[in-house]
Amino acid sequence: MSGRSIVPRALPRTVRVLAALALATALTAGCSTPEPRVTGAAEEGDGLVRGEPAPSAASPFWVDPNSDAARQVRAWEKEGRDAEAKILRRISERPVADWPAWDDPAPGIRSAVRSAARTKKTVVLVAYNIPHRDCGLYSAGGAKDADAYRSWIGEFADAVGEAPATVILEPDALPHITDGCTPPEHHAERYQLLSDAVDTLKALPNTKVYLDAGNPDWIDEPAKMAQPLRQAGVERADGFSLNVSNFQSNDSVKTYAGQLSDAVGGSHFVIDTSRNGNGPLSGGR
Fold first, then answer.
1. pTM attached to this predicted model
2. How many domains does one find in the chain?
3. Which of 107, 141, 207, 245 sees the fewest Cβ atoms within 10 Å?
4. Which among 169, 166, 188 is positioned nearest to 177, based on CA atoms?
5. Residue 129 confidence (pLDDT)
6. Whole-number Å distance between alpha carbons of 29 and 118
7. What is the CATH number of the domain that holds 205?
8. What is the mean pLDDT of each run of 10 residues along the chain (285 residues)?
9. Is residue 74 situated within a structural domain?
């Protein structure tokens, strides 16, 4: 998350996606949950909790019944801590995405797919293992080389199989080319790996793929992202994603997304709205 966040990207993340302009799902990595302080106001007046209503059961996306948040809710309910449990259910009852393991993605994906199949829901996955990831900064790492990445994305796709899935492909990978953080000698390889990954994932019968395109406070001119998206194969994907793990407001991201969509032939887009309720920090990213 170089140059954009004071929080290391390696930390667990909660990401909610807005499909075009309509809220579609939530993306998250597993997270440990600190015990909240519950005020008297939270315990009174029907136990109302601030924020928008939790998604209904009509959501097409999978809710992990064994997420850290769900397990904590059950633990608090057993202890009679109903007020705390009610607050945490606003996390546990939202669809969440899996960020598959960087060494062996298949077991986690298969587990999610099996669970989702029992309720006939769609899993949301984030592929985040590109070589030279995050320019060696907070989330440094990724596959050791191009061959390792091709093998990893192949295992990723095989584990998804015919299950309905939505994949956010490689947060930061293209913006880091655009801002110059990724050295030029790695550009051609990265474009090829992303393009190949789009084809691998789109060969699956029920998978949607969105290439990540950063956020408007990072690459502030949408036109600068158009060519990188084209080179990575956005026309063969289902669209692009914006604001992953970031804090830019819905209004600013929607405006940016519309301009970028126009620049790449009207491509569909999804927006992460999980962290931006208060907008970005004043004077920072």
1. 0.80
2. 1
3. 107
4. 188
5. 96
6. 21
7. 3.20.20.40
8. 30 34 34 32 37 63 93 97 95 87 95 95 96 73 92 98 98 95 94 98 98 94 97 98 90 95 96 82 64
9. no
Range of the domain at 161: 14-33+55-64+96-272
Q: Three-state SS string across the chain, please?
A: CCCCCCCCCCCCCEEEEEECCEEEEEEECCCCCCCCCCCHHHHCHHHCCCCCCCCCCCCCECCCCCCHHHHHHHHHHHCCCHHHHHHHHHHHCCCCEECCCCCCCHHHHHHHHHHHHHCCCEEEEEECCCCCEHHHCCCCECCCCHHHHHHHHHHHHHHHCCCCEEEEECCCHHHHHHCCCCCHHHHHHHHHHHHHHHHHHHCCCCEEEEEECCCCCCCCCCHHHHHHHHHHCCCCCCEEEECCCCCCCHHHHHHHHHHHHHHCCCCCEEEECCCCCCCCCCCCC
What strands lie across the sheet with 123-127, from one edge to the other?
Answer: 22-28, 14-19, 269-272, 239-242, 207-212, 165-169, 123-127, 97-98
Q: What is the pLDDT, as a whole number, of residue 55?
A: 58
Has residue 82 been placed in a domain?
A: no
